[in-house]
Amino acid sequence: MRICLDATALDTAHKYRGIGNYVGGLLKGFSQISERLDIRFLRLRHDSLGTFRETHTKTVFIRRPKKPSIRFQWLLNELILGREIAHLKMDILHSTRAETLVHRKEFMTVATAYDLIQLFYPTDYFSLFSIDKKLSFKISLCNYTKANHIIAISECTKNDFVKHLGIDPKKISVIYPGFDKTLFNCERSLNDNDGNTIPKKYFLYVGSSERRKNSDAIIEAYAMVAGKLDEDLVFVGKATDGENRRTIAKVEKLGISGRFHKFDFVKEEELPTLYARATAFVFPSLYEGFGLPALEAMACGCPVIASNTSSLPEVVGDAGILIDPLHTEGFAQAMEKVAGDAVLRNLLKEKGINRARMFDWEASAEQIIKVYENLQ
Q1: Average of pLDDT values for 122-137?
Q2: Residue 325, exposed/middle/buried by CB under 10 A (0-12, 13-18, 19+)?
Q3: Which tens digits make up the pLDDT trace of 131-178?
Q4: What is the C-alpha to C-alpha distance for residues 189 and 281, in angstroms, rounded to an integer?
Q5: Which of 170, 175, 117, 168 minimizes the C-alpha distance to 151?
Q6: Is 2-178+360-375's fold the same as 186-356's?
Q7: Going by CATH, does the domain composed of 2-178+360-375 fall within 3.40.50.300?
Q8: Both ends of the chain: CA-CA distance in Å?
Q9: What's the whole-model pTM score?
Q10: Quick check: 19 and 117 in contact, CB under 8 A?
Q11: What gap in Å lies between CA 235 and CA 219, rounded to an integer?
Q12: Nearest alpha carbon to residue 149 among 177, 175, 178, 170
């Protein structure tokens, strides 16, 4: 088989986000079993100087203008991209971004599906899109319905695509992604001497300040029990100036300013230390396509307190404490319980480490190969 794997996320701003992690991890997984396939990945950008994670897969460069408009890019995809892939005699195009999903009779198509956040939170996403982005989003949804097969990163995502896009569930395979085990692991984290600027004891949140992340619930829950605990509260994640001002105002109103620490940016190699030293990782998100931070925290031996909604129960399982994200008092009680019970913390740590071992990029690649084979 000849597989054309879309790696364009590594050539755009997506390389710093979830899609970039997915593509980079999948390429690593394929490189470990590359002798079984002739795997190629394509780029749709003109700039060929981007940094790529090490891989043994072959590379095909498909040139494009450096920064084309979205409508022009769609036109190029429809008129040229499919023909170029067919010319390369690929059997399957695996699109990791629906923007590059093109359809021709010469090859089959597979698409990775992450989530439908924009549909569930239209005022936070879709209403802010330009006309070009709105068009791009609608065409992306249409492309998913035309794909020969879809790989969903969670059962939650699969169910959403079936319910909201009307896709036949038989056309969707759930294949969980992995994570960077060389970076996020208990041994490496505990031996790391960095992170001296953080408090000695703290609860940790890693993520954005988007409404769906429900980060206000952590602040409110922490304020309920702060007077009983030694732990401070540490937030890590990029936020707009307006979001930061709103968070600071809330913290001040609740009287916990001196115990709240916010970092807009932390180097990826410093995250394992933050996870490993935290009393617990608290993640009250309302919606996640997968919930990678919870997995990374478990891998680093950090107890997890998370929502019992969307995909998070699939990731955390019985290795953490799962709570209704709208039950703020429940999060407060869980934080107090974990902080005061060393036996419970050790149990959650052990369970989390074992749970994290279930998510592996090589295993994901093996399962995706089976999807390819079934399409032939």
Answers
A1: 74
A2: buried
A3: 777 777 888 899 999 999 999 999 999 999 999 999 999 999 999 999
A4: 15
A5: 175
A6: yes
A7: no
A8: 9
A9: 0.90
A10: no
A11: 10
A12: 170
